Amino acid sequence: MNQPQNDYSLEAIPFLSLNGRAAEAIEFYERTLEAEVLLKVSYAEMKKMDPDFRYEAGQENHITHSVLRIGSTKLMIAEEQMDPTRPWSAGNDFSLCLQSQGHDEIVRCYERLTADERTTVLVPLAANSFSSGYGAVRDPFGVVFQFTVTRHAF
Length: 154
Hints:
Radius of gyration: 16 Å
Low-confidence stretches: none
Largest sheet: 8 strands, mixed
Helix content: 10-25%
CATH class of the domain at 11-97: Alpha Beta
CATH topology of the domain at 11-97: Signal recognition particle alu RNA binding heterodimer, srp9/1
CATH architecture of the domain at 11-97: 2-Layer Sandwich
Shape: globular
Number of helices: 3
Distance between the termini: 28 Å
Number of strands: 8
Structural class: alpha+beta
């Protein structure tokens, strides 16, 4: 299949949902794997960007999004479970984030996955406070994919 040519590069980045332990995991990976934190946004910082963002008292330092570089790869970590229809448990805390600076590239991938009637849309692809396009689906095999149009060049 021919792929459209553009200046963007689609990435598939592992994403861990750690249910209140994201900051601890980030510090652990910094110490043990020499991870470099490229981006880290706390709940309190997100509230400044999006006044509608809600969290419980005492969760100000919880992490809503982070990107780490470990060697030549990236890892994303946050607190939130990406599939709200399933309770969090170790083992279902993993998803893949397809990320690109190219909006059309993200839309194309999202539309191809959602064209299959067995795919469940968890978050419809739309603009929000951190992206011009963000969405999430569960594919026919139970894998959760997030789609993010990123403005970051790292």
